[in-house]
Amino acid sequence: MDLEENSMHQPSALTEMHGEDLSEASIHELDERITILNAEIVRVKKIIVDKKASHKSAENFFKS
Fold it and tell me: How far, in Å, CA of 43 to CA of 40, rounded?
C-alpha cells in the first residue's frame, strides 16, 4: 500500500470534526469554533481563486 492509498483510509480532521459531539461545549467555545471555521473558509476560497488564476495563466501561455 502506498502513501496515497494509506491517506485515503485515514479520517481527515474535517471528517472527525464534523461528527464531534458539541453538546457539552459552551456558547463561547461554539462561537470561537465558528470564527475559526469562517477564517478557514476564507483561506480555502483564496487558495481556490489563486489556483484558478494560475491555471488560467498556464492555459493562456500554451494557447499563444
Answer: 5
Amino acid at 40: E
Q: What is the mean pLDDT of residues 29-58?
A: 95
The set of residues, in sequence order, having a beta carbon less than 8 Å from that of 25 and lying 6+ positions away, is: 33
49 is in which domain, residue-wise? Answer: 25-64
Give tens-digit pLDDT for 47-56: 999 999 999 8
Quote the number of domains for the chain: 1
Q: What is the DSSP string of 12-36?
A: PHHHHHHT---TTS-HHHHHHHHHH
47 versus 61: which is more confidently predicted?
A: 47
pTM: 0.67
Residue 12 lies in a domain: no
